Amino acid sequence: MGLVFSEEHNDNVIVLNELDYGEVIDLHGLFIALPKKPKKTDILFHDLPKKEQCWRRLDVPAEIQKTKSLDDWNERPKEVRQKYEEYISEEFRRRKEGIWFYNNGVPTYITGSHYMFLQWSKIDIGYPSFLNFQREIFIHMDACNKDPRSLGQLYTKTIPKIAAVLVYRCPKCFIYCYGSKTSISNNVIPIRTIC
Q1: Is 88 within a domain?
Q2: Which of 29, 42, 85, 160 is 20 to 30 A removed from 48 (C-alpha atoms)?
Q3: What is the 3 state secondary structure string of the chain?
Q4: pTM, to two decimals
């Protein structure tokens, strides 16, 4: 599906979560329905004071941090793997559905790909920080993936250098996140750009 007609907006709305959607945002003329905001206690960092509410990586269990590959994980004792089944299932749910977190008192939705980028991807400066322009890029990428009218997403080189470095990482994460969701997929990640 991916699209619904909205009388209020007199236009099609791209739905990110077809099961349950809430607020519709206008992302530069493209109407996108975010997933419904969960109850306060289900939003990350709800228990922190407003001034401390910002994106931060969630703690990763030491046993999982030590894992270098799927083969490495499969060689671990069954008891260890079972101990972290719930944690791993929750990470896959977040990857699929995205998450909500409090950002200075504001409930903020990020897509599953954006969550994976922030939580699990190391870049040249370490783990990335939350930046709202990246949030918009990831929401747009997710919308492109769900919209049957979409032919893809185009990046231009008119953005500042620091933004370009961070935007360059987003497509790699997108390819990984979407390309690795199925067992049958061919994906290419360019190692250099030719411009």
Answers
A1: yes
A2: 85
A3: CCEEEECCCCEEEEECCCCCEEEEEEECCEEEEEECCCCHHHCECCCCCHHHCCCCCCCCCHHHHCCCCHHHHHCCCHHHHHHCHHHHHHHHHHHHHCEEEEECCEEEEECHHHHHHHHHCCECCECCCCCHHHHHHHHHHHHHHHCCCCCCCCCCCCCCHHHHHHHHHHHHHHHHHHHCCCCCCCCCCCCCCCC
A4: 0.79
